[in-house]
Amino acid sequence: MKRLFLLCALAALGACATTKMSSTERLAMYREHAAAPVKDFSYFGSLNGWQPLGDSALAVWTRPNEAYLLDLAGPCQDLEFAPAITISSMMGRVTNFDRVRPLGGGSGVMRMSCRIKTISPLDLKSLKAAEKEMRKAEVEARQEGEPAN
Q1: pTM above 0.85, yes or no
Q2: Could you list the mean pLDDT of each consecutive 10-residue stretch along the chain, which spans 149 residues?
Q3: How many CB atoms lie under 10 A from the CB of residue 98?
Q4: Which of 26, 116, 138, 144 is deepest in the core (most CB within 10 A)?
């Protein structure tokens, strides 16, 4: 029982140590770690993960260590709230002629698809390092702001 309490307390402490970035801040961070746009990427019908970055961009992981920043040609309705997405492709390739469609919500709800404007590979190592550094700075700032005992 004490062990369970300790684990719950540590989990709660960890949750307090992270602040939620706005979608604009998160998108800026992803853009900082994106390479020059490419014309396409391999896609065989399933993603390893995805992250909405506001209503006009998202990151998609095609493999655990391979991800792309997709900028869309305008706002994509419900992208930030969708539990899943689909991406169109042709012969195992996604290009800027393809589309992202948010899924989910009530039955019978037809979501509009959103055209991909640009595809940029993400440098995941530098992105993870930047996120780690940001969390570290936030924790240090909180500790400095705490009153002394």
Answers
A1: no
A2: 33 43 89 97 93 95 96 92 93 95 72 93 95 86 70
A3: 18
A4: 116
Residues written for the chain: 149
Question: Edge-to-edge strands of the sheet including 57-63?
Answer: 49-52, 57-63, 66-72, 114-121, 99-103, 84-87
Do 24 and 54 contact (CB within 8 A), yes or no?
yes
Check residue 111 and give its pLDDT: 75
DSSP for 3-44 reads: HHHHHHHHHHHHHHT--PPPHHHHHHHHHHTB-S-BSEEE--
E strands in the chain: 40-42, 49-52, 57-63, 66-72, 84-87, 93-95, 99-103, 114-121
Whole-angstrom distance, CA of residue 35 vs CA of residue 32? 8
Q: What is the pLDDT of residue 141?
A: 82
Taking only the tens place, the pLDDT of each residue in 22-58 is 888 899 999 999 999 999 999 988 899 999 999 999 9
